[in-house]
Amino acid sequence: MPEPTGVIHDIGYQRYTGPRLGRRHVFGALYLHGLRTVFGLGRSAKAKIFPWLVVGIVTVVAAGLTAVRSQIGQVVMTYAQFADSMSWLVIFFVAVAAPELVSRDLRSGVLPLYFSRPLPRSDYPLAKLLALVTALWLLLGGPQLVMFLGAAFTTDAGMRGVWNELLDLLPGLLYAGLWAVVFASIGLLVASLTGKRAFAAGGIVAVFLMTTPVVGVLSIMPSQTINELALIASPSTLVQGVGLWALGDLLVEAGQNGFQIGGFGPVYAVAAVVLVTACVLLLLVRYRKVATR
Amino acid sequence: MSTVSWITARGLFGRRRFLLLLPLPVLLVLLAVLSRAFGVDPGEWGPPVLVGLGLAVVLPVVALIVGTGVLGAEIDDGTVVHILTKPLPRWQIVLPKLAVATGVTAVTVAVPLYVAGVLADSVGLGLALAAAAAVGALAYSALFVALSLLTRRPVLLGLVYVLIWEGLLANVVSGTKVLSIQQYVIALADRLAPTELLEAGVSVPVAAVMTALISVGFTVLAIDRLRSFSVAGETS
Question: What residue ranges in B8-77 does DSSP mark as E strands?
Fold first, then answer.
């Protein structure tokens, strides 16, 4: 093999002499940009329609619940139940946000530009994932904060009432975090498979919706073990199962029970961890070798 | 088979993403077979599988992916210009595309629904479900083809309709059922083969008239919109 004879000539371009910020700043910039993309900030009005439609609906619902509670004095929904009842909107929000985060970059073929920076392969998907998780958590947590403020200012029990309310809110926020992690990891994985935003959105909704009736069927099988494990079959009910185990009374009030998980609570927690880990690993594998589409 | 429908069909089947359509019907049949094998009472597994999965998820989602794919994908690519510049009346572009979308959706959805219907009750119910699903496929396809001409984000708007209007609102505000294709399909299937499994939310005449109105209306709208279609670059 002949020795390479190429020479790089200095043709007089000005050198960059400023500070080089490195990996952490690239990650931070990607994360912040991702978070802004999800809500359409810094983009045209068209890009804001769908995210803010969802944000508007959940906020209105939370405000309505707060109004009902302060007028009648009856708790319509606990904080955790609020997250559950918004599941369809969360699915829709993921279907809007995840393709915006990853499919656009795939389609316009800018990934080689990203990866020519001091950015490890795994940082790109992780930053996007973190942005989506944050956005979903804000989506569910913000309205809960509205409900908390409404409850805190109308409480009769003084500071003690506010403190009790806060103790109710914190598990609700944790539960919203669980929703966010599970839905974001699945949604981003599906979206990263295609560069077409339309198909990514359809695929995400299909994955979430087609698994829900499986739970319905499994829960009427003539075996109690299958019934109690049925919630594992769908992401949204899996989250509910973990919530039932971890939060218990906060999620289901006494006497009102839709699903039973029996003694399988830890199984649900393990299943959730395995699901999220698998999705993140697959996402990293996907981004080990990808350029376009 | 006209050239337009031929290239539309090839555009649909020639891509890998067509495989995306397969898991949904397979899951439908699988659940029906599973429930039947375990000897569960059809009255219990019928509603979640036939309505909850079949008519509420598989039919609209398949119709959405196919319906926005036949025309929307070409608009996205910009290749729609090639068809628009041919000396064809616009209806000769829209109708074949609508026919292909309806046909593909109807076959993908009606076959598993027929199997599930037979397993749940009788051949009669299977045929009724298949026929109603085919009619529903026409209405959904007309809606989604028109949507892909009205807006740049047809899939998201279609999802708003399927998820929020039909899924969320129809359970809370029962009045919206009058404007829900899913309810028409259920009503029609229930009329063709009355069973305990299906529970119609609207009357049969309303369902029939509205289905016809939606199919014809959105087709006419799509033809009209294509008549004055402006090819714009993608905006963010």
Answer: none
**pLDDT under 50: residue ranges of chain B:** 236
Indicate the number of domains in chain A.
Answer: 1
| Alpha carbons A196 and B76: distance in angstroms, whole number | 9
Q: How far is A87 from chain B (nearest CA, A)?
A: 10
H-run or E-run covering A85: helix A79-85
ipTM above 0.90 for this complex: no
Check residue B100 and give its pLDDT: 92
Beta strands in chain B (DSSP E): none
Q: What CA–CA distance (Å, rounded) separates B15 from B70?
A: 12
Query: For position A254, what pLDDT does the model report?
Result: 42
From CA B111, how far away is CA B126, in angstroms rounded? 9
List, for residues B78-91, the tens digit of each pLDDT value: 788 888 888 888 88
Q: Is residue A266 part of a domain?
A: yes
Residue type, B171: N
| Angle between the N-to-C axes of helices A158-191 and A265-286, in degrees from 0 to 180, rounded to the nearest 10 | 40
Tell me which chain B residues have a C-beta less than 8 angstroms from the C-beta of A209: 57, 61
Domain ranges of chain B: 3-227
Q: Are A240 and A252 in contact (CB under 8 A)?
A: no
Which residues in chain B are closer than 8 Å to A44, comparing Cβ atoms?
235-236
List pLDDT tens digits, range A93-109.
999 999 999 988 888 88
3-state secondary structure of B153: coil
Calpha distance B79→A292 (Å, rounded): 20
| Three-state DSSP string of A99-134 | HHHHHHHHHHCCHHHHHCCCCCCCHHHHHHHHHHHH
Q: Which residue has the higher pLDDT, A158 or B53?
A: B53
Helices A197-218, A158-191: inter-axial angle, 10-degree rounding: 110
A121 pLDDT higher than 90: no
Residue A184 inside a domain? The answer is: yes
Beta carbons of A209 and B38 less than 8 Å apart: no
Mean pLDDT throughout A232-260? 72
Give the domain extent around A255. 23-286
Query: For residue A277, is pLDDT > 70?
Result: yes
What residues of chain B lie within 8 A of the CB of A199, using their CB? 17, 20, 65, 155
Residue A292 lies in a domain: no
**Chain centre distance of CA B83:** 24
Tell me which of A132 and A107 has the higher pLDDT. Answer: A132
Answer whether residue A15 is part of any domain. no
Query: Does residue B232 belong to the interface with chain A, where contact is any CB pair within 8 Å?
Result: no
Amino acid present at A94: V
pLDDT of A13 higher than 50 = yes
